[in-house]
Specification:
The protein is mostly beta strands and about 70 residues long. The chain is built from no helices and five strands. It has a three-stranded antiparallel beta sheet with strand order 1-2-3, with no helix packed on it. Strands 4-5 form a two-stranded antiparallel ribbon.
Length: about 70
């Protein structure tokens, strides 16, 4: 039985009107964590999958990761 005074546990969202838009920094603070390159310098932490066969060995002048095959 449902009580009419109870609030609904579902919510309808309108994704055409985003309340937040993620705009990454120009230069990311990439660090490798296992099979991921993780950036923690942007407003939202985000990552890219590189797999287990690659290892980050540094950054180039533009701040992009330099990868080598393992």
């Amino acid at each position: 039985m449902s009580n009419k005074n109870e609030k609904s546990e579902t919510e309808v969202l309108d994704f055409n009107k985003a309340s937040f838009v993620f705009k990454p920094n120009e230069n990311h603070g990439w660090r490798q964590q296992g099979p991921y390159l993780v950036c923690k310098s942007c407003e939202i932490e985000h990552a890219a999958w590189v797999g287990m066969a690659r290892q980050m060995v540094g950054l180039n002048k533009k701040g992009q990761p330099i990868m080598k095959k393992v």
